[in-house]
Specification:
Elements lengths: L3 H4 L4 E5 L3 H10 L3 E2 L12 E7 L2 E7 L13 H15 L3 E10 L10 E9 L9 H6 L2 E2 L4 H7 L2 E7 L7 H9 L4 E3 L2 H10 L4 E10 L6 H27 L8
Helix pairs in contact: 2-8, 3-7
Protein name: Nucleoside phosphorylase domain-containing protein
GO molecular function: methylthioadenosine nucleosidase activity
Pfam family, one: PNP_UDP_1
Length: 251
Amino acid sequence: MVTETEKRAISTIVIVIAMQEEAIPLIKKFNLSQDTNPLFPKGVPWVRYHGIYRDLNINLIWPGKDLNLGVNSVCTVSASLVTYASIQALKPDLIINTGTSGGFKAKGACIGDVYIASDVAFHDRRIPIPVYDAYGVGARRSFSTPNLLKALNLKVAKLSTGDSLDMSPEDEVFITANGATLKDMEGAAVTYVAYLLSVPAIFIKAVTDIIDGDKPTAEEFRQNLAAVTVALDAAVTQVIDFISGKSMLEL
């Protein structure tokens, strides 16, 4: 049954992005301003940038920097918290989780490739008890966007999420079972919250490092971050331009 929300034009978008380096190009592209009257609880480092781009109310949410260590607040806990708080405060029509990821060359991934994630799951929540095992993996489909994919000719792949940059042998088993081409540190957490609160979510990920390659992951990530962020910025802009003026049903 089609709801009125699905039929009306998309108005408010929340973009959840983990790293300042990934966020800055989009803040500039969409001419977003930092919120001077924060919507979030006092004391949290979360930052909202907002503005109107074409006919869309865009809200880019960055979890900010860790209050003790001064590094980007990456990983699943921060991602789930800011997603929940943003939905409660802004009531978005759509969530876009974007950022960088690792990719598997065995699955065809190359540095700089940009993907839309069709499915998202965890690979580091191992609970070897019947039913709890499936809960731990938490596999879910992302919101289907067949028209967007056709129009923009974007690659599609499955995404697997965990809280570690490296990959243990146990992680590899679960990532393989998830059928994932991509590995990140936020996606499945965003999916979980979006699913709980019935908000459609899509995932745009750009590959900075080849997990099954011959270079150390951390080194390759740092080496490619700036250049890959340019490709990510271009893809997100294409997606936003396509969304403008359309309903959820038209995606």
